[in-house]
Q: What sequence folds into this?
């Protein structure tokens, strides 16, 4: 029997709820370091100087800039809306240059208030093993429970990771996602700051999730966090990220690179609830490498942003490795959710699973792009891909571009896709029971994603349902 | 206190479906409408509840003096009119328990939360009357339900929402005799001086179990004959052929 959300009391709900209206506020800027507007090799040097980068990182950045400038915008396959990003008007680095605080008491008052309003400290107390809270370019707060630290867990920002833990960081950095993977991974490589570096020692199963919260406060700004998570042999970790920004008239750019490495038998779950304001270009590259018997799951939910382009991937490099992408996208008026998955099978008996549900409302547009690659010399590989789209009215648009390249005949793949609508008859039925139109619509939409929402930890699945309700109620007359 | 339909004319697109329906259902009474397929019986139920496929051209529908035609579908429901559908819609992914709860929650003032414990207690007791398995609460609304399960679910919702006026549209269709008895048990348990019923049916069989106070015959968008419960038995005997004869006689 299912009580669903009835077992969660109001207080818990309030503590974990993050809605867009709640994120739509900002404080006056108070930055000690500002790389200024536009992007050049001086910008790179400015960032490297502020961060006191080692030489190898400075070189890495310059190479990134060159690659970024050399690569064309991918408008040959992606939306022309990308041309509306004005790279000369963006500020690439804003921070007060301080190291992240270990205690909320030491965080500057406006930053503390921001994260309190977003519910981050309460969540930390309630169910998290560690939190990193990033404000514009750098983490303002970063802490991990003491017992995890004793066990050898590293949870720091990328700057500290590359400096203090170079021996673990450097061998994997930029290896899962090379700089030249795409134009935006190159941009991130040039100007990255913030993001997390996580190392989980052999055999350690971290019970509670680690969380990162990415907050943009400033206008005309780009946030470029860089995350690297390494789960050593047999370890397990769950990482969750959330994000919000105030809605500005001008566009904001968020372009992250996230690399995961699951060593033999390790498990990584990476959960995203993306709720950027509707002026944010969210162009993110996420990929994991799963070694023998390892498992990487991306659970990805995109509700906010103007344009999201994100195709989390798993390279199954070791035998019996498993990759999974579970994604929910909600595209409302003025939004384009261009999401999908990449599953690269690179060893025998590897298994991948992609389940994608998208909802398009009003003029909203959802696109699914999938890539499943199984080369000829392998055997015993399996892929399952399911894409379901729900259209809320006739203006909505949805496209599916599955690309399944399977060579050889010793594999099992299946692909299912469906497009459905919330029918008039369904709405009439619900309204005849006294449920107002907006609530009926959100009930129908929550029903559509219900199965997937249960894949999220309870705290997040409640938030997800609330977000969907808010979005739907706002979108119906 | 009654549900009053006066001189109701309604179209779907350009086609006239209702051509002047007059009907009054006082609280405490069960009225049955019988008639051949296509006579406008189901249309009447959809118009009372506000389906927007139909254009009301003239006439009124009032419930205890309140004009229903001016209200939205959900408002009419909360005002107290309930339709047990002939073909209930499926709502994938939404559990029955959550669906009924959402309907009850919609009846509470803003900021007031439904008491979950009392709700489930009430739900289970009504399910017991209808001999429904507890697993039913977590199944998605009508999804993969048999015909009988769907109809029982309609009656369960009716019992939970406690409407002032209940319209049952062909509730007997697709039911075997055992399921029919259970559904009738639920309906009969709800009969009271405070509630009126409009039972739409093609066959007399249902009326053996839900005994009507009045029976009306509908044909070509009008009520052409009214009588006591014996009228249903007569129709069972002689069928609707008299309607055709009547038309011939009029011609």
A:
């Amino acid at each position: 029997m299912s009580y669903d959300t009835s077992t969660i009391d109001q207080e818990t709900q309030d503590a974990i709820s993050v809605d867009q209206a709640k994120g739509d506020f900002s404080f006056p800027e108070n930055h000690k370091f500002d790389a200024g507007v536009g992007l050049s090799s001086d910008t790179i040097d400015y960032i490297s100087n502020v961060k006191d980068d080692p030489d190898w990182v400075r070189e890495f950045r310059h190479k990134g800039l060159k690659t970024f400038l050399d690569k064309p915008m991918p408008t040959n396959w992606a939306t022309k809306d990308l041309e509306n990003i004005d790279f000369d008007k963006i500020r690439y680095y804003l921070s007060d240059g301080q190291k992240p605080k270990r205690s909320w008491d030491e965080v500057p008052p406006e930053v503390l208030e921001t994260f309190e309003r977003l519910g981050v400290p309460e969540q930390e107390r309630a169910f998290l093993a560690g939190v990193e809270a990033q404000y514009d370019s750098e983490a303002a707060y970063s802490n991990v429970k003491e017992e995890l630290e004793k066990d050898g867990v590293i949870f720091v920002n990328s700057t500290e990771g590359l400096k203090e833990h170079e021996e673990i960081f450097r061998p994997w950095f930029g290896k899962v996602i090379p700089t030249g993977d795409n134009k935006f991974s190159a941009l991130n490589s040039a100007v990255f700051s913030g993001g997390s570096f996580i190392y989980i020692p052999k055999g350690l199963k971290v019970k509670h999730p680690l969380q990162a919260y990415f907050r943009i406060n400033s206008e005309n700004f780009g946030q470029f966090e860089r995350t690297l998570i390494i789960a050593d042999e047999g370890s397990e970790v769950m990482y969750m990220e959330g994000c919000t920004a105030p809605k500005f008239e001008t566009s904001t750019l968020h372009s992250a690179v996230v690399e995961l490495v699951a060593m033999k038998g390790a498990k990584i779950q990476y959960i995203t609830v993306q709720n950027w304001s509707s002026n944010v270009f969210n162009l993110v590259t996420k990929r994991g490498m799963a070694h023998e018997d390892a498992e990487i799951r991306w659970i990805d939910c995109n509700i906010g942003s103007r344009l999201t382009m994100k195709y989390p991937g798993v390279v199954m490099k070791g035998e019996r490795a498993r990759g999974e992408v579970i994604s929910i996208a909600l595209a409302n008026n003025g939004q384009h959710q261009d999401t999908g998955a990449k599953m690269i099978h690179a060893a025998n008996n590897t298994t991948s699973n992609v389940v994608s549900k998208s909802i398009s409302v009003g003029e909203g547009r959802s696109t699914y792009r999938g890539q499943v690659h199984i080369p000829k010399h392998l055997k015993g590989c399996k892929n399952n891909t399911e894409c379901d789209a729900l259209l809320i009215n006739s203006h909505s648009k949805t496209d599916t571009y599955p690309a399944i390249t399977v060579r050889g005949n010793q594999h099992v793949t299946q692909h299912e896709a469906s497009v459905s609508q919330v029918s008039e008859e369904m709405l009439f039925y619900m309204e005849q029971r006294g449920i107002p139109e907006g609530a009926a619509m959100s009930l129908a939409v929550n029903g559509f994603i219900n199965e997937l929402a249960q894949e999220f930890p309870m705290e997040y699945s409640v938030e997800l349902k609330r977000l969907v309700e808010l979005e739907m109620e706002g979108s119906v007359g | 206190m009654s549900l009053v339909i006066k001189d109701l004319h309604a179209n779907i697109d350009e086609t006239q479906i209702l051509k002047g329906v007059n009907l009054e259902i006082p609280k405490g009474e069960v009225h049955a409408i019988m008639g051949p397929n296509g006579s406008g019986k189901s249309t009447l139920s959809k118009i009372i509840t506000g389906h927007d496929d139909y254009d009301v051209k003239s006439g009124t529908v009032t419930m205890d003096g309140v004009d229903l035609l001016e209200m939205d579908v959900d408002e009419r429901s909360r005002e107290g009119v309930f339709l047990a559908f002939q073909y209930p819609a499926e709502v994938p992914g939404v559990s029955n328990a959550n669906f009924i709860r959402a309907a009850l929650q919609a009846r509470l003032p803003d900021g007031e939360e439904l008491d979950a414990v009392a709700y489930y207690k009430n739900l289970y007791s009504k399910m017991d009357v209808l001999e429904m398995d507890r697993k039913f609460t977590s199944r998605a609304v009508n999804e993969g339900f048999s015909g009988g399960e769907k109809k029982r679910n309609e009656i369960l919702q009716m019992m939970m929402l406690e409407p002032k006026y209940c319209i049952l549209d062909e509730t007997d269709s697709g039911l075997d005799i055992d399921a029919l008895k259970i559904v009738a048990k639920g309906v009969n348990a709800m009969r009271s001086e405070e509630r009126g019923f409009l039972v739409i049916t093609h066959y007399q069989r249902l009326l053996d179990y839900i005994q009507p106070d009045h029976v009306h015959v509908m044909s070509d968008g009008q009520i052409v004959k009214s009588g006591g419960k014996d009228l249903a038995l007569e129709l069972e005997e002689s069928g609707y052929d008299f309607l055709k004869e009547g038309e011939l006689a009029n011609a």
Remarks:
- The longest strand of chain A covers residues 280-290.
- Residues 428 and 437 of chain A are 9 Å apart (CA to CA).
- Chain A touches chain B at residues 1-4, 6-7, 10, 423, 425-426, 428-437, 439-440, 443-444, 446-451 (CB under 8 Å).
